[in-house]
Every structure is written in C-alpha cells, then in structure tokens.
Amino acid sequence: MNKMHVDMGEIENEPVRPKITDAKGILQQNREFLDFFWDIAKPEQEIRLKAIENLIQYLKTSEKTDELTYTLNRLVDGLAHTREAARPGFSLALGQVLSVFEEVPLHTAFDQIKEKHNLAKVKKKLIRNAAFGNFFGVLALSQSTRLPKEPQVVLECVQLLQSLSQYREHLRDLPRKTMVDILSETSEEVFEEVLLGALQTDLSSAFSTPEQLQLLLVAMQKFPQVLKPKKLKKLLGTSTIITMDNIPKLTDVLKMAARSVKKDRLLPAVALDLLQISLREDNFELFWRETIINGMLKDQPGPTHYLSYRLLGSALPLLTLAQLKQVLNGEVMRTYGEHVVSAQLPDRFKFAPEMETYVGDFLQGCDDPEKQLAVMVAFSLLTNQGYPVVPSFWRVVHHLQPTALQSYVDWLKDMFLNPRLDSCLDFSTRRQKENQEGGIQRENCIFRLRKWIIPRLTSIAENNQVKREEALVMDVARFVFFHAFFNAKKATPDILETEATLSVPLDEKTRAIIINSFFGLLQHINHLPLLGNSPEVAARNQRHMQGVMADGSMWIFCLVRYADTLLNQPKYAQSTQPFSPEQRQAWDSMLASVWTLMKKSKKGQTPETSAFQQLFLLVGIHLFKAPEDLVDLMQDLQNCMEKAQEKKSKKKKAVTGSAAAGEEEPHWAEVVVDILLSLLSQPSRHIRHVCRTVFSNICPHVTARALTAILDVLDPDKDEEDSSIVVTDDKDKIKKKDKKKKGEDEDDEEMNEDESDASDDDSDEGEGEAMEEGSEVDQNFRIELMKVLQNQGALATEEDGSDDDELDDEAMMKLDGSIAGLFLEQKKKMQAKKDEKDKLKKEKTLVRDFKIKVLDLVEVFLARQGSSPLVLGMVEPLLSVIESGMSSESDQQEQDFLRKAADIFKNQLCRAKQYCKTVGDRQGELHDLLEKLMTKTQKLSDSSVSLYFFSASLYLVKVLRGGAPGASADGKTTTSTEVLCVNLLVTAVEHITTGVREHQQSQASAMVLRGLQSREVQQLLAGNPWAVLLQQAVGRVAASLETVVETGKNKVVQEKLVKALELGLFLVKTVNQQKLSVDLEPLKKVLQSMREVLGFRKTGQMEDTYWAVMKHFGVIKPKRDRTRKTKDQAEPTAPKKKKGFLPETKKRKNRKKQLPVSEQGAADANTVPLGKPEGGKKKRNKIKRKLPGGGETPGQGLTKKAKTTQPEGKQKKGGRGE
C-alpha cells in the first residue's frame, strides 16, 4: 500500500505533457498515401514519376476533399525543400495535380505559394529556399497548361518572376527563361491587354542583358502585329533591331551570353533568335560582318569564338545558297580552321566534333543537292598550307544525296588534276609562319592537297554507309589505279581518264601514296557485298556473296581488264614503269589462264578453280607494283595449275624441270603453298586475305610435305636458316616504303601548331645515345689511345722520370688532331654496331610478323580439315612454338604471336569437335609420341607449359580411342591407352606432394583436377581403376594439406592450399555422387585440424572453397556474431597513459563509492532504456530531468563512471571529468 502511495506521488510530480495537435492532418492520413510524398522527394527520376502517377490515381479513386487539400499543402511546402533534387519533383507533381483537378483554382494555388514562401517574412538564412519555392511554384502553374486561360494569374506570375530577378546569385537566369516560356504560350490578345504593360520596363531595356533581349525577340516573333516598327521605335528608339547604332550593344550582349554558357558548351537561345531576326529584317550581312567578325572574333580565342562557330553551324539550314558561300568563305571559317589545327594537342578543347554534328544534321535535313555540295566543298577548301583541316574520312558524307555525292566526287577528281590553290581558304599558324623561310612553297601545298584528296576518294568508295552505286566505286577505283601506274598522253573517249590531263605533274611521293591507297581500296572491294537496294540484291547478300558485282564478275577482274586496256593502248596511256618483254609475257599468260579458268567455271565451279583464279588475278595486279619479284612466281603458278589439271606438256616439262633426273616432282598443292608463303612475306592486308581464301579452297588437296613446309616456318630451331630469305625480301621493300612515307609523315607533323622543335637536335641526341652505349670502352680502344698519347709525348713514362714537362702549342694541336681522329673512328664503330643491332631487330620483327600470318594457314587447315590424319603432325611443332615463346623475351609482338599460337593449339586442335578417328597403322607412332610427351611433361620446369603438354596428351588419348579399327584390336588399344593415361595421372598425383617447389605442387593439383574432369578420362578408367586413382589422389591431397596447417600467410603457400582444396572438393563431390568405396576420413581429419589452426572465419576464395568441401562432410560454415558485446561481457583493460593528461597524483580524487565492473554493467543495463544508445551527455540529462527529487541516483553515478570504459577517441572530451 505504501508502495502504491509512493508511485502515485511520483505520477503527480511528473510535468504535464502538452496536448498533441495535428494542424497539417498528418496523423489522419494512411501510410500508403503518405509514402507517395516520400517517393516524390527521392533523387531517382523513375521513382519520382511513378510516385506522381500513383498519387494522381489515388486521388482520383478516393475523391476525398481533405486528402486533396493535404496534397496541395504538402506539395507547396515541398517547393522550397532543402534538398535540391526534391524541388523539381514537388513542382512537377503540383503541376500535374492542378492539370488533372481543375476544380482547384489557379489563383488559390498561386496565393498559397506566395503566402507560404513570402520573401519579405522569411528568415535570412532561408531566403534561398524561399526564392526557389516561388520559382518552382510559378513553374508548376506553367506546367499545368491552365495558365493561358487565366490572364490575371499570368500577369501575377510574370510580376513575381520579375521580382525574383534580384536573386540572381541563387536563381541565375531561370526567371527570365521561364518568362520567355510563358510568353510563348500566351495568346496575342492577353499579351497586348495584360502583359505588355507589365513587361514595358524589360522590353525597353532589352539591350542590357541576354535574358531581356531574348524576351524582346521572342515577343517580336510571337506577336509581330503588336510589336510593330512604331512600337519598337517607342520602346527602343529604333524601328529595327539590327542597325549600326545597335551593333555595339548587341555585341556586348552576345559576349555576356557566351560567357554565361562557358561550362554548358551550347549555343545561347538569344544568339539564334538574333540571327533569325537579322534574316527577317534582311540585315544578315551587316549582323554577320559587324557583330560576329568585327566584334566577337576580335576577342582572344575562347567562349566568344566558340559561340561564333556554333552560330555558324546553326545558321547552315537558314541561309540561302549565296549566303552559304559567303559565310563559308569568310573569317569565321578561317578562325575555325586555326582552332582545329592548334587544338590537336592533348588536354585542349576540341570543337571539331560539334561542328561535325552541325554539318551532319544540316546534310541530313537538306533536300537541295546544290547546298549540300556547297557545304562539302567549302569545308574541303579550308586548308592549312594546302592540307584540308577536315579528316579525309569524314562521316558526314554518308548524308549526301546521290546527285550531290557524284558532283562531290567529280569536284575532288578535278581538284586533284588541276589544284586551284587560289580558291582555297588557306592559312598558316603562328609557329608555321615563324619557321618558314622564303614563304610557302606552292609545290608542297599541291602535294599536301593531293595527299588528302586520294584518301578522301577511297574512303567514299569504302564507306558502307554512303549511298553509292557500282559505277561510282568503279569510277574511283579506275581513277586511282590510272594515276598510280599511268600517265595520259593523248585523249580518247575509250579511256575517260585520259581526257583530263594533270596541270602539275605527279612527284614520286604523291605516286607512292596513290599506290598504297589503291591496294587498300583493292583490299576493301575484294570482299565488298553487292550494292543496291533491290530485293534480289538483298537475297544474294544473305548468301554472303562478296567481291563480285551485280553481273557476277569480280571487282578485281574488272580492274585487271581495265589495266590490260591501258597496256594495249600505249598511244593514249603511258605506263610509269613499262613492262619488259618477259614481264609482258607473264601478264598475257596470266590473262589467258584466267579466261580459261572462267570458261571452265561456267560448267561447274570448283574450289581449285576459284583458288587459282584468285591467285592469278592477285599476282597479276601486283605486277604493276613489284614486277621483278613476281615474274618467276607467275611462272610457278602457271606450272602448278597445269599439274593440278593434269595437262602437262613436254615443252613445259623441259622448261620448268630444273630438278635432277629421277627426282620426284612436287605435288601441285605443295607449289601453291610455297607461292602462298612467298606472297605472305609481303606487307599487304589484301594479299593476306586472299591467301587465306585460296588456302581454304585447296585444303583437301594439301599433302604432308606441304603442311611440313608451313610448320617449318614456325619451327623456332630453323629461324636462322629461313628468316634471312623472308626478311631480305621484305626489308628492301619496307625501306623503300619508309623512304616514300618519310615526306608524308613530316607533312602530317606540320599540322600541329605547338609541336616541339626538338627534332633539330636529333643528331646530337643520337650521338649521345651512341656514346652511352659504348660507355664501357673496350680494351683495344684504350690501347690505341695510350699509343697516341705516348707517341706525342703527352703521357709520362718511367724513362722520363718526371711529368712536369708541358707540350708546346704545335704539339698540342697535333695531339688534338690525333685524339679527334681516334675518337671519330671509335664513334663510327659504335654507330655501325648500333645500326647492325637495329637491323637485326627489324629483321626479327619482320620474321615474327611473317610467322603470325603463317599461323592463319594453320588455323584455316584445322578449321577445314580437323579430322585429317595430317593434323596429328601439328602437335609437336605447335608445342615447340609455345615452349619457345614462353622462354623468350616478352615484347608485344612476341606476346601476340604466342597468344595466337596457344589459342589455335588449345581451341582449334585439342578442343575441336572434329578430330582424327582413323589413325590406321600410325597407332604405334602415336603411342610413342604420347610416351614422349608424358616424359617431357615430368621434366618441364615451367608448369604453364606443362599444362599444354598435358592437353596434348589428352588429345592423343582421345584420338587413339576414336581410332580403334575393330573389336579384336579394340581391347588391345584400350588397355595400352589405359596404361599410358594412368601413368600420366599417377605421375601428376605423386607431384602433389613430391614437387620440388610449392608452386609445382600447386600446378600438379591443377593438372590432376583438369585430367579428372575430362569425360574421356572418366570413361577410359571406368570401374575399379577410377576408384583406385581417386583414393591415391585423396591421400596425396590430405598429405599436402598437412604441410600448410601452420603456414597460411605466404602467397605461394596460399596458392598451393587453394589448388589442393579445389581438387579435394572435386574428389569429395565425385565420391559422394558416384557412391564409390573411397575412404575420405584422412581428408576430413586434416580439414578439421586446419579449421582449429587457421580459423577460416573471413571470406575469400580459400575460405569459400574450404567450407564448400566441409559442407559435403556435413559441417556448415558458422554465422558470424555481429552483435556488440555488452559491458558485462567486455574484458577489463588497463587504462593507457595518454599524453596531455594530468598524472594520477595531481587528479582530484573521486570520493564516491565505485562499484565493481560486473555490478556496474548490471546497473547500466537497468538504467539505459531498451533500444536506445548507451552513454552520451544528452541522454543523461534527460534521465536527470525525469527523476524526481533532484538527487543523484546510482544510475547517474554509473553513467558518469562508464565514461572511463569508452573508446580512446571519446575520452579526450571527458577532460577532467575523470
């Protein structure tokens, strides 16, 4: 009873709680309804839009007035949300609600917005939020689409936006832009009667800011009947906008607009509106000349220049043909060209992509071919010392209509024949002007222009997006071929290229560029699909017909016929390198062979016929490039075709039979392979592509000797023998090619304005490098130097007895000359060594590139003839390539070669679906090879190479099983194979524990796992041998894991542990699934002991694999206890002495009785409310206020005492409270 009175007294002493009010009605709403507003405030746009949609649907369904009222209040409050991402969501939601529920008056919503976000009453620190609240409120009213229906609200919105202009530091130009948007949706009547008076001030001061000028321009475009010249005269003092008096003001406004969008990188709307006004007032020339050229471009390169370029791009669709030519040949284009050249350095803003977008959009939307042609020609004539600034492969060309495209190609050809430099808008950069001595050379400009035109023509023919016809492609190909190898002597209608002569003859550099461009074009059209849009063409393209025209003839054959026409009419066309009689005979025989093959192909096309036809055409067209090298090759090809068709004549035998009597002649496929290898030595992508196609066609006829010739090229042991032949042929050609390209590269470098001039010191740097390489002076040079010094008496000897004697001037000069001559000779020796080293490096690069091409033939053969017994001969050569590549240097080209060889071996050979199943009498040979590979695998030091040998062994096992001839021999073959496979796996299993290094032991585990996972191995060792092998593996894995129980920190040991656990996981899973009689207890015991030592409490590959194994033994990974320890569970730790605190003798003694740690924790548990954070000053103060009497309770004392057990970072705040 007494206790009850005490409780009642405590209740009476408690302070009276205030009455809960719900002014906003939040507590009356349901949770689903309130969640809409939370989602509206989220930053994700999809969530916001979905919430707005659901909110409107909910309000439509509920039809409750209080919910609609609450929605309006909540959305208006959210307009000034502290989070910037939430404001647009609430504004959009308010606009949608006002649009759907028209019973809500706009005036009421506007008054509510002004009242809630009153800028006059709000606190100073909330001014920014209130300004945004007003702005987004007006924006919501504008988005409701009801604003034009209520003129008074429109007026009040405009007035509110005008008042917000003073908060520019927060809102920038958003109020003015919104006024423009409202103005564009307002009717002419409302504007004249309601808004014109309110906007009088803004319209009168239109030349002050870009926003006010844009407001005037939009009003003039929208309401021309209201803002007539008389009205403009009254507002501005002039009846038009573009006048000489207004030019300075307009220039200043445009400069302000350019700086305001510097970071946005876009064209201000006021600039485009001003351009349109100038066109409407017929003052475009004045505006462009005075405002843009004499105004904006006079500033330093920056935002004003970029605005001019953007205005140029935007003006293209608005101008007439005459205006286009005027603008595109003016100062803005020249300045743009200088920007393109100077912006080539990294970390510089590049406007060229934007201009390409402008031009592409114009060409795509323009239907006038003349305008399209004018724009393309103008940009092509913008040149830097003759070289156009637009790239030769300009993607906008695919927007040209066929008529404009043909006209543009004709213009390019005419410009190539007759370079008119005076029509170019040419410029030179500041650095180019400084480096020029004696002005620009006309010949160099012509060379640079032609160097651009030829790739421009070929890119049009090669671009699949361009709407081109066969006639256009052939026209370009003929033009490039003619000027690459011929000169026009006299015009004839039979050869169109002879009707136009060159005004300036071609030099060797230009012709070299044309030749390279032609063979690049030839590579492209060789696999060009059929051109056209007809259904027949589409159907034929589905059959992947490439390199042929609509009539079925090949592109390359048409070019060969055109070349033959030129050769047969020397009166009109003269070859730059006339054929010798022998070369001409080779050309004629090639044509005859092609015609013969074409006649036979009409009866029935065969792969051999197609292969020879392509080879003849390829070698024939390359006769123009290298006739001396290909004449003999053409003869070999002729003989080879005759052998293949079995039509050899005695005359041919007498001519070609250079072998000794009685010696067997090579098969025709072997000769073709030799020809292909010879062609692959030449640096040409087209030749490489044709060689792949030809070899694919003759794969069924390839003999063992032909395949050996291919593999011999890849053999690393034969590099020294074969590489000299390959490299010598290519080296000379590449040297010539480099000489031809030298001038081209120099001209490309001139395009960079800020390019370093360090090239002048190249020779000095080269000398320094040579001296550095020879820093270790050889003994012979030292002896020679000593002799020179002794002969001149400059070196003291024992006979002299003194070194005080000095040489006279004449002796010193003589000594200097001798030393200089000696050092010069030594320098020449060192340079010769350096040149020899570079030569060997180039040769090695060429050999490696040649071998990469030869790998194409290996890949093709494996893809086409994977089941042929000849494939078995590739195993050892490819393994030797991989083994040699792993041990050699690792430059990028070597890595590419090794990666390609390894990929072919692994994927095309070992894992191929088609493999040899008919080994015949080669079983013994394969068994020996398998034994050899197994023995080699055991001795290899590199485990990564041993994996490839292991894959080869498995492949041979697969071949032997598939190649069993019958039932009687099957048992013998299987038994022999089982012995080999078991020996291989048993050896690998033993290495799990007997490997010399831990890395080898880990790789042994990986090899065993890979072998056991093979389906062929499982089928091969089915039954008791399989269980025995698994038992051995389990024992080895358990023994291996025992050695790493106490050492788990080393990376190599961790790798060994991971590999062993992966193998153990496979063993346990296989034994359980197949229910084999294999004892897993040793492995289980080792794994349990590992858990006690290593723990495996973290996450990672090793830990996850361990628990995956233990899961099969019924042990589940324990969940981590993430709960924090309570104070009674915390172990008492001795307080550390901290710097800056008073010593114990100087501290004020705490006279209050302190409880033990266990009692203290219990008291804390009783005083701290459940679910609330422990400790903290704020919480302790609340507890003191709630307890009556004001005396200190045990809980308060314990709370204060508990500060001594808090982390170190929080003790510093306690200070002297300890």
From TrEMBL:
Name of a matching Pfam family: DNA_pol_phi
Region (Disordered): 644-663, 720-776, 1118-1218
Molecular function (Gene Ontology), one example: transcription corepressor activity
Swiss-Prot/TrEMBL keywords: Nucleus
Top-level taxon of origin: Eukaryota
Nucleus found in the keyword field: yes
InterPro entries with a match to the protein in the record: ARM-type_fold, DNA_pol_V/MYBBP1A
Amino acid composition bias (Acidic residues), ranges on this chain: 745-776
SUPFAM superfamilies named in the record: ARM repeat
Subcellular location: Nucleus
Residue stretches of biased makeup (Basic and acidic residues): 1209-1218
Start-end of Basic residues biased regions: 1135-1154, 1177-1187
Cellular-component GO terms for this entry: nucleolus
Keyword Electron transport belongs to the record: no
Family per record: Belongs to the MYBBP1A family.
Designated name of the protein: MYB binding protein (P160) 1a
Taxonomic lineage from the root: Eukaryota, Metazoa, Chordata, Craniata, Vertebrata
Gene designation per UniProt: MYBBP1A
